[in-house]
Amino acid sequence: MDYDCDEDRLTTAEQLAAHDPRAAAEVCLAIARDGGVGDEVRLSAAELLPPLDPRAAAKAALAIASDGGVGDEVRLSAAELLPALDPRAAAQAALAITSDGGVGDEVRLSAAELLSAAVAR
User: Fold this and answer.
1) For residue 70, with 0-12 CB atoms within 10 Å meaning exposed, 13-18 middle and 19 or more buried, which class applies?
2) What's this model's pTM, rounded to 2 decimal places?
């Protein structure tokens, strides 16, 4: 994992957003889906996406939330982006977290609450 390179990619996406939102969305989605990129950078890329491309934002957040190699809190943060973007994806993400026995109890409980809210919609 090259943190400088990861950060540079994110900075490029941020700068690109003002000039070419579609290209910025593509870069952000690629970063968010890249398992070789640091967890926080992936999440930051996903957080940039909603105003650029809500569908891509949902794909990015779901990819992060479903990735068992990502830290528990980052997975939960990604899942928490989803209800406003795609309630079905929110339910999928929450289910992925709650069913992962390697995730800490508090995060699993928070994901279960998110799942309950997503199903209630």
Assistant:
1) buried
2) 0.91
56 vs 54: CA distance, rounded Å: 5
Round to whole Å and give the CA distance between 4 and 24: 19
Extents of the domains making up the chain: 3-120
Q: Each residue of 19-28: pLDDT tens digit?
A: 999 999 999 9
- pLDDT-derived band at 47 (thresholds 50, 70, 90) equals very high
CB 66 within 8 A of CB 92: yes
User: Amino acid identity, residue 15?
Assistant: Q
DSSP E strands in the chain: the ranges are none
Cα–Cα distance for residue pair 22/49, rounded to 1 Å:
10
Q: Is 67 helix (H, G, I), strand (E, B) or coil?
A: coil
